[in-house]
From TrEMBL, chain A:
The keyword Membrane applies. Gene3D superfamilies: 1.10.1760.20. The keyword Membrane applies. It comes from Hespellia stercorisuis DSM 15480. Keywords: Membrane, Transmembrane, Transmembrane helix. This is Energy-coupling factor transport system substrate-specific component. It comes from the Bacteria. The chain crosses the membrane at residues 38-58, 70-88, 100-122, 129-149, 161-180. The lineage of its organism: Bacteria, Bacillati, Bacillota, Clostridia, Lachnospirales.
UniProtKB/TrEMBL annotation, chain B:
PANTHER family: SLL0384 PROTEIN (PTHR34857:SF2). Coiled coil: none annotated. InterPro entries: ABC/ECF_trnsptr_transmembrane, ECF_transporter_component. It is a multi-pass membrane protein. GO terms for cellular component: plasma membrane. Its main location: membrane. It comes from Hespellia stercorisuis DSM 15480. It is found in: Membrane. Keywords: Cell membrane, Membrane, Transmembrane, Transmembrane helix. The chain crosses the membrane at residues 31-59, 71-90, 110-131, 243-264. This is Energy-coupling factor transport system permease protein. It holds the Pfam family CbiQ.
Automatic annotation (TrEMBL), chain C:
Keywords: ATP-binding, Cell membrane, Membrane, Nucleotide-binding, Translocase, Transport. This is Energy-coupling factor transport system ATP-binding protein. It comes from Hespellia stercorisuis DSM 15480. It is found in: Cell membrane. One of its GO terms (cellular component) is ATP-binding cassette (ABC) transporter complex.
Length: 196, 265, 282
């Protein structure tokens, strides 16, 4: 295995903690969105796919301590880690409009992944705010699949657009002298001289 | 306890004096996982509910019933009651019991509800029980014993500390926001506006400290090219324990194989 | 014997135009105690990073000239191995606590565990160092709930416990009271007595004057003065370059302007008192 970038190792716990605390804060402020993937996007975009995956998986394992059904959605965090890397690579964190589009892309993909699990395994019930929408839709005659799809897409899009905007500002605030030492520095800093 | 006494307790392997908690963490994980996964291979939902009861007994045996319940009750409410209601109300079925607007409860929907929640409840119980009976540092020690690098231990243990540190800072920032007149309750827009001034500085500060953290851990020979030693150790796994785990695993494999054979035939 | 030799070293951090170290040449001998002083942002911490091998291995950037550690070019040195040979303590006490241990005892033991020291030896060393650094009463406490000063002492103890041949120490007393500071200096002096090389960045010039064998003064990335402590600190002109000098040197300067001359420039209090006594009795 290639030797790990030393800073990356120490960023992993921070990424995980940012995910968890960000999510807790959203709950505390009673916001209708999760905001529990900020850390995954930051680590994924600055350090690459594998560190992002580790953050995503460990976060989901930690979340499952209190809500074990979170384990069923472990692949969605992983999707965000991969997306984060490629968003950084194709400079999609450079402006707010691009960032918003990122959020919509991420939301569509994660909805596509989450709906089968929610609809078929859990009958539309995830135990979060989205469940209320699903239950309401189903009670008014929708069947489980479209009801789950609509509710997930709505909440996910709101969530991911906000997450992306927060990530955009955080990435801009990380000092260059730190960024330059991270594996994905070349995506963010153009005039890096590679000598020594 | 004086310091010498405190120091000398490191000489003995750490024991809790409890049959469940003194199992090697990985063996405990193995046993619990088998219990949790077995419900997916037994079609009768009664088995799942039996498992839920069994988990309560194990929690009591481990002296952890109170801690177990403090987490598990929410899962029972959310996935035991609500999930069952949703399933029972909306799953398709032929033998209708009750019908109102979109809601249609049938014998089949009740059965599918019971079947689902028995599985969700027992698997969730296993996860909660493992966490409630295991110290994380024991778990990472056990991982290192089977060759997992100690950076992994660091990441796991450090995550917990960082969560608690960031959580505390979040509260401090929130309080100072309130003191400066920024509302953290009130309408949705106001609450949403409070989020970023709290999270922003929190994340930036944490990320900025990473450089020094890395240097500091390096100074403690974190990546020294030598085999590290352990101040705290766990007891060696007994033959009895090993045999028990193997027996459990064999039974589980037999169950899975039997189940697949049934499908195929 | 030379421990670290710097020959015309110039170093620039990544993305920076101005070098942080300019044309630095100096030889650090084994077993000596070096004090580094100078204005803020004068390059002291950068020099520490170089001596510890973090430059160029961690910080990257452009390193010119030669840096020889134990006879080997620093660019070729294995930095993970170097971390077992040169101890490093720096200023910020908050980032130096690992955050993965439940007691100060275990916190101090981390470095020893990583060096593969046997358990009984770890226990003895931790108990010893705790006594030395005066943190015995903290050993069973949670390291994540300590005050800044307490953390600073724990961080210091954690590195000193690893018993390496050389220590680079960057402002270890920033959060300590005078008593705590004096204690740290005594330990550093003791390390030197044990034959260890110590390189210390400090603002507390009076204590440095008392203990250091040699002094380096840094200004805008250059070493503007370096050599035996007495010689360096006698040069009053260093004041103009932002260096703090011992009070006794300033006193001597005042006396000189009133045409009172002592035998030599006193850099420590004891020396000053002695000279003044002799002078008054004559």
């Amino acid at each position: 295995m290639k030797k790990w970038n030393k800073l990356t190792i120490f960023l992993l716990p921070i990424g995980i903690a940012v995910n968890v605390v960000g999510g807790q804060l959203a709950i505390m402020l009673k916001l209708p969105v999760y905001l529990d993937s900020i850390g995954t996007f930051i680590v994924g975009s600055t350090c690459g796919i594998l560190p992002g995956l580790i953050v995503a998986v460990l976060t989901q394992l930690l979340n499952s301590i209190t809500l074990p059904t979170n384990l069923l959605y472990i692949e969605i965090g992983m999707l965000f880690a991969v997306l984060a890397h490629f968003f950084a690579k194709y400079e999609r964190f450079k402006s707010i409009p691009r960032t918003v589009v990122n959020g919509i892309i991420a939301a569509c993909m994660s909805t596509a992944l989450a709906v089968p699990t929610t609809a078929f395994l859990l009958g539309g019930f995830v135990g979060t705010g989205a469940s209320v929408i699903v239950t309401a839709l189903m009670a008014s005659g929708w069947s489980v699949l479209p009801a789950t799809f609509v509710s997930e897409l709505v909440t996910e899009t709101m969530d991911k657009v906000i997450v992306m905007i927060i990530v955009f500002f955080i990435l801009r605030a990380i000092p260059d002298r730190l960024l330059v030492k991270l594996p994905n520095a070349r995506f963010f800093i153009k005039d890096m001289d590679e000598e020594d | 306890m004086d310091n010498l006494e405190f120091a000398n307790h490191f000489l003995e392997p750490r024991r809790y004096g409890n049959i469940i908690r003194d199992l090697n963490p990985l063996n405990r994980l193995n046993i619990f996982l088998v219990l949790g996964l077995s419900v997916f291979f037994v079609s009768k939902y009664q088995y799942g509910f039996f498992m839920v009861v069994l988990l309560f007994l194990i929690a009591a045996l481990a002296g952890r019933l109170k801690n177990y319940l403090s987490v598990y009750w929410k899962i029972m409410l959310l996935f035991g009651l609500f999930l069952f209601c949703v399933k029972a109300a909306f799953s398709p079925g032929v033998h209708m019991i009750f019908q109102l607007w979109g809601i249609h409860v049938s014998i089949e929907s009740i059965q599918s509800g019971l079947s689902l929640i028995s599985k969700v409840l027992s698997f969730s119980g296993v996860v909660v029980l493992f966490v409630q009976t295991t110290e994380w540092e024991d778990f990472t020690y056990a991982l290192e014993q089977i060759g997992v690098p100690h950076t992994v231990s660091f990441v796991i243990l450090s995550s917990f500390q960082t969560i608690s540190d960031l959580g505390q800072s979040a509260n401090v920032i929130m309080d100072s926001q309130k003191a400066r007149g920024i509302e953290t309750d009130g309408n949705l827009w106001k609450r949403a506006k409070a989020y970023i001034p709290v999270m922003g500085p929190l994340v930036i500060n944490a990320v900025s400290g990473v450089e020094e953290k890395s240097i500091a851990m390096d100074a403690r020979a974190f990546s020294a090219p030598v085999q590290n030693s352990f101040l705290i150790e766990l007891p060696k796994v007994t033959v009895k324990e090993k045999a028990f785990v193997i027996l459990i695993d064999v039974l589980f494999v037999a169950l899975v194989v039997g189940r697949i054979a049934l499908w195929l035939l | 014997m030379a421990f670290i030799e710097l020959k015309d070293v110039t170093y620039t951090y990544p993305l920076m135009k101005e070098p942080a170290l300019k044309n630095i040449s100096y030889t650090f001998e084994k077993g000596k105690f070096y004090g580094i002083i100078g204005e803020n942002a004068g390059g002291k911490t950068t020099l520490c990073n170089l001596l510890r091998g973090l430059i160029p291995h961690f910080y990257k950037g452009k390193l010119r000239g030669e840096t020889i550690v134990n006879g080997e070019d620093i660019k070729k040195v294995n930095i993970d191995l170097l971390s077992t040979q040169i101890g490093y303590v720096f200023q910020n006490p908050f980032t130096q606590i690992s955050g993965v241990k439940k007691s100060v005892f275990e916190e101090i033991a981390i470095g020893l565990e990583n060096l593969g020291v046997p358990k009984q030896e770890i226990i003895d060393k931790v108990l010893n160092i705790a006594k030395l650094v005066n943190i015995e009463h903290l050993l069973q406490n949670d390291p994540n709930a300590l005050s800044g000063g307490q953390r600073q002492r724990v961080a210091f103890a954690s590195v000193i416990a690893m018993d390496m041949d050389a220590f680079v120490i960057d402002e270890p007393t920033s959060q300590l009271d005078p008593e705590g500071t004096a204690g740290i200096f005594e330990i550093i002096h003791m390390l030197k007595e044990q034959g260890k090389t110590v390189i210390l960045v400090e603002h507390k010039i009076d204590l440095l004057a008392q203990y250091a064998d040699e002094m380096l003064v840094m200004h805008k990335g250059e070493i503007i003065a370096g050599g035996p402590t007495k010689e360096v600190l006698s040069d009053i002109s260093l004041m103009e370059k932002g260096a703090m000098l011992p009070h006794t040197v300033l006193l001597n300067h005042e006396l000189n302007q009133k045409n009172i001359y002592l035998d030599h420039v006193p850099v420590t209090k004891d020396d000053c008192i002695r000279q003044l006594r002799t002078r008054m009795s004559s």
